[in-house]
């Protein structure tokens, strides 16, 4: 299957614990587009994002990235993708700065400091992550999004634990990413119709 | 993330969690100290039993350290990040084993002259012991890491890890102690070392891939 879309999901069938979560799910994301995954608790929002990210596999269906079938090997997609799940993947034993440098070693210290300033993390750069609040830890994970420069963002409840200011910053960040031609697929219950007009609705 | 940054920060995390490493080393020292007190402190007996005591201590220390090798990575979501990093997961696993091996085994090797003196180990067998540790312990780590990856999502999985791993540790233990005893008797021990090397190399080929598969299975639920 060939498509002009950057990411195409075709007839995806996902199950968890013997229960079908979604069957025959298809949608395409084009450059500069963001899609929101909607659905009640247990409808498979996280499972869908994990399947696309390559953490788990679908029962059936295909995933295409830039026209290439990546269903059995997600490596080409993962090179261009950043995934932020419920668990943030932030090392509590490391400082904020070490966490960012560990994840994005190719970024300069100046870039790293600028992002930390934008996210209000600059005063905590030398602090161990385990001493930060859940919201601040979420900001560290979001700082990696800024620094990663990857095209596709898969975000699972990215607004969780963030305060109002943090939420606004994330929206601005998503907007900037879309303007630069990036793709975003996120699950959230937050209304973001101004920047995300497309929804994937998962039924129970 | 790159392979280099992964390795550097793995060492850094281990340094910050040095209490875990220290516990494993302390456990080893306690085993070596308590054994003569509990059984016999006679030099001739200890010299004969030294390789067995030291190797049993090493095996138990490795089991302790391997049990929580992936626990924190699983709980904080690092395992998910490694899977989606686009880097080779088997290679990342190999680097993690390497970092853990260096951090646990190097201090053991440094302590070995003192501990072997405590157990009245003859000089002839000391170097055989060091060689068996250098050649055999990578195999123990590589075997153990598969069990740790399989049980990472299981609560209270310590017992399960031990049941899975311990039978696979027996050949390493037997060949290693046999090599030291052969050296002590003035016999050639290169055959035993070759067997240990073969076991470690076989683990090197199989373990990173099996561990990566087990990690994926554990994380995907």
UniProtKB/TrEMBL annotation, chain A:
One of its GO terms (molecular function) is ATP binding. GO terms for biological process: cytochrome complex assembly. It holds the Pfam family ABC_tran. Keywords: ATP-binding, Cytochrome c-type biogenesis, Membrane, Nucleotide-binding, Translocase, Transport. Residues 7-204 form the ABC transporter domain. The keyword Ribosomal protein does not apply. Gene3D superfamilies: P-loop containing nucleotide triphosphate hydrolases. PANTHER family: ABC TRANSPORTER I FAMILY MEMBER 1. This is Cytochrome c biogenesis heme-transporting ATPase CcmA. The gene is ccmA.
